[in-house]
Amino acid sequence: MSEPRAPKRLFIETYGCQMNVYDSERMRDVLGPLGYTVAEKPDDADLVILNTCHIREKATEKVYSEIGRLRAHKERRAAEGKGMTITIAGCVAQAEGEEIIRRAPEVDLVVGPQAYHKLPELIARVARKSGEQLATDFTAQEKFDRLPARAPDGVTAFLSIQEGCDKFCTFCVVPYTRGAEFSRPIADVLAEARALADKGVREITLLGQNVNAYHGGAAFTDLLSALAEIDTIARIRYMTSHPIETTDELIAMHGSEVKLMPYLHLPVQSGSDRILKAMNRKHDGAFYRDIISRVRAVRPDIALSTDFIVGFPGETEKEFEATMQLVNDLHFAAAFSFKYSSRPGTPAAAMVGQVSEDDKSRRLAVLQKRLFEQQTQFNASQVGRTLSVLVTGTGRRSGQKHGRSPYLQSVHFDDARARNGDIVEVHVTGSSQNSLSGEVSSLVRA
Ligand code: SAH
Ligand code: SF4
Ligand code: F3S
């Protein structure tokens, strides 16, 4: 009888946005049936996948330095008679294609975001040392049709409902790396949501680059209503949405649909109208402020989150001040902020008036200081309130649990009875910049 074969080890490193987090999970789903188990470190993995992000220069450079580190492990394993298949997936794979293999010959496969359903076949070809090393030209629909069932590992899950983007903001690579905007048919989305619910998922976050522009045979709000009808799904979120796709119906729904969580991630990028125009954002500051005041009218407690870019080409000190003014006026519960990064091939890269690194760094520090203050303040304002918390895991100490508030804050509390997936009422007694703590006042089992 032959020796039982050691399980094959898979290591996936995920960079970038939630779309990549979703894709990495689906790659695990694709590879599970081939006998791959997840490794904690790349050192001893038979298959290493870097699921990459192209959004800023730094993100792309990280990929090449990581490949450099992997080369040493690959060589060591080869000396031991073992192989290591290095796969580059995600947006750098899509953007740079074969250039990656030219620059880093130790890379075995380059797989774009619409082609990872082909991984089993591609890996087999590497083993046979034959055939294409590049798979970047598939459609999103073909991928979704061929992906296996989901195997969620918790009570919260991402669900990708839309791919790509047609907005062409002048700074952004996404329309080039993820392709044209495509919405999955509503029946497919609902089937995936029901399958997640059957496996214990209680909170679903719908994903897309402009998720509120969804048009998969139904409006976005119709999709939200249909999801809300799935009994055991208690909470629905969505990201990222675009201001110009924020309909009156969606705003109204924040006031009427109890399962829709009071959290809105709505990137604004800048507070200056001239910069917004140069960015091709298709909205100005007044338009954005109007949306926020209408959302707050129906849901006054909503947690508002956003993205900013500082130092876009031509941004003056005064224009940066307009961004600070917007922050001061609107109060954000959370935000992501970045220094503008010039991306080859995008219109902004060729604009005159590129801002110096020093100015960008200074502006970012000023902005982030204010945003962190607002986040800390928002968390502190929950102290004394009782919040519904979805239990997501256990802490290190016995009885210690953690969960998620409606406002996406992580909450720590002690309760021996609470199980993952329960929703507990927690009286908040403490807060920090990143989390809340409190005591359970009642437990509701699903
Ligand atoms: N689709 C989303 C965001 C996609 S990328 C939207 O339209 O808002 C996530 C964030 O990265 C963007 O909101 C933007 O703030 C930032 N970003 C994108 N391109 C960038 C660049 N070239 N330099 C710096 N930040 C960038
Ligand atoms: Fe990029 Fe703009 Fe599309 Fe968002 S909307 S992904 S920032 S091009
Ligand atoms: Fe990055 Fe691609 Fe997402 S470029 S931000 S991983 S869509």
From TrEMBL:
Residues 8-128 form the MTTase N-terminal domain. Residues 380-442 form the TRAM domain. [4Fe-4S] cluster 1 binds at C17, C53, C91. Its EC number is 2.8.4.3. It holds the Pfam family Radical_SAM. It catalyses: N(6)-dimethylallyladenosine(37) in tRNA + (sulfur carrier)-SH + AH2 + 2 S-adenosyl-L-methionine = 2-methylsulfanyl-N(6)-dimethylallyladenosine(37) in tRNA + (sulfur carrier)-H + 5'-deoxyadenosine + L-methionine + A + S-adenosyl-L-homocysteine + 2 H(+). Its cofactor is [4Fe-4S] cluster. One of its GO terms (cellular component) is cytosol. GO terms for molecular function: 4 iron, 4 sulfur cluster binding; metal ion binding; tRNA-2-methylthio-N(6)-dimethylallyladenosine(37) synthase activity. [4Fe-4S] cluster 2 binds at C165, C169, C172. Keywords: 4Fe-4S, Cytoplasm, Iron, Iron-sulfur, Metal-binding, S-adenosyl-L-methionine, Transferase, tRNA processing. Catalyzes the methylthiolation of N6-(dimethylallyl)adenosine (i(6)A), leading to the formation of 2-methylthio-N6-(dimethylallyl)adenosine (ms(2)i(6)A) at position 37 in tRNAs that read codons beginning with uridine. This is tRNA-2-methylthio-N(6)-dimethylallyladenosine synthase. It comes from Candidatus Viadribacter manganicus. The gene is miaB.
